[in-house]
Write a structure and sequence with these properties.
14 helices; 69% helix; globular
């Protein structure tokens, strides 16, 4: 129930209300399915092929899903199936081909600033770290306007929640590492990989978005990735908790309940944004039909790109150009 509440969160309202954001949801779903195939049952060649296919679909949807290849290789190495070296090499080879195909011909839009130089600047690294923690906190504390209103409380609460989540995940994984029996059972592997994937996706996003300004980081569409982090933590706190004592399990359940309640509270913060977007979206739809570009900014900020997509929809009779939709 808690995982369902986080998955259906209103904090990713952009993904619910903007059709082209479906790609992000497909990516998150496909990469999660890939990790599930890699961490459950015997890791046969069939499972490896299915997992690779899921990861490829994910990469076709969103760039952060390229992390699925190194993280998947880590899963194979940890599980040590028969012919582990061969399977790892094949997996990484397929990943290299997909990655090269993805970046081939990829051009950075001229309107965007270059990525943050995290390898050469400590200041940039600090900013990206803050942005990563900020993004991780969004599913539980949604305050995207904090950077416009200078609400200092929210500016610290969101990254503090993200840092607390990382600390909690590390503590739970340490508990599994100390317990040889549980470490050997590898029940911790799937949620741990979800946490690693989400953390990596947040960091990749921060490298590209932080140079645009802090207001660019709390975009609702990226919650689809950060919510996977809290799902992994929830699994470690409940069905995969490493501690056996009744008191420890009760404490873990209490913390898990607190996380779910915080996620449900964040729904209330996001609902006004959903309502506002719906109302302005109706007006934007009418402006698009009139080709009144200044008033279509709520739909998409770039008129040339929007007009290109409008022409496609009109040519194929889709969306608002579907017969009877008006």
């Amino acid at each position: 129930a808690g995982i369902g509440a986080l998955l259906a969160t209103a904090t990713q309202w952009e993904n619910w209300l903007q059709g082209w954001q479906l790609a992000l949801m497909i990516g998150a779903c496909a990469i999660s399915a890939s990790l599930a195939w890699l961490t459950s049952g015997r890791l046969t060649w069939t499972r490896l092929v299915v997992a690779a296919a899921c990861t490829t679909v994910a990469c076709a949807s969103f760039a952060s899903c390229l992390l699925g290849w190194p993280i998947g290789a880590l899963a194979i190495i940890v599980r040590r199936p028969a012919r582990v070296l061969t399977k790892t090499a094949v997996w990484l080879s397929v990943g290299a081909v997909v990655t090269v195909a993805y970046v081939h011909g990829l051009a950075r839009p001229e309107s965007l600033p270059p990525p943050a130089p995290v390898l050469t600047s400590l200041s940039a690294l600090a900013h990206v770290t803050y942005g990563t923690l900020l993004a991780l906190g969004l599913p539980l504390w949604y305050a995207p306007l904090a950077f416009f209103h200078r609400e200092t409380w929210d500016l610290w609460v969101m990254p503090a929640i993200g840092a607390a989540g990382i600390g909690m995940g590390l503590a739970l994984l340490y508990g599994h590492v100390r317990d040889r029996e549980r470490r050997r059972a590898q029940h911790w592997l799937f949620p741990a990989l979800l946490i690693a994937l989400s953390l990596g996706a947040c960091a990749m996003t921060a490298v590209g978005r932080v140079p645009l300004g802090w207001h660019a980081m709390p975009a609702a569409r990226y919650v689809v990735s950060t919510v996977l982090f809290w799902i992994g933590v929830l699994m470690l706190l409940t069905v995969r908790t490493p501690w056996r004592s009744r008191a420890a399990r009760t404490a873990c359940l209490a913390v898990a309940t607190l996380i779910v309640c915080a996620g449900l509270r964040a729904w209330g913060d996001a609902l006004p944004f959903m309502e506002q977007h719906h109302v302005t979206g109706v007006l934007g739809r009418e402006a698009l039909l009139r080709r009144d570009w200044p008033k279509t900014q709520v739909i998409f900020p770039s008129p040339p790109v929007l007009d290109e997509r409008r022409q496609f929809l009109e040519r194929h009779g889709l969306s608002l150009y579907r017969p009877g939709s008006r």
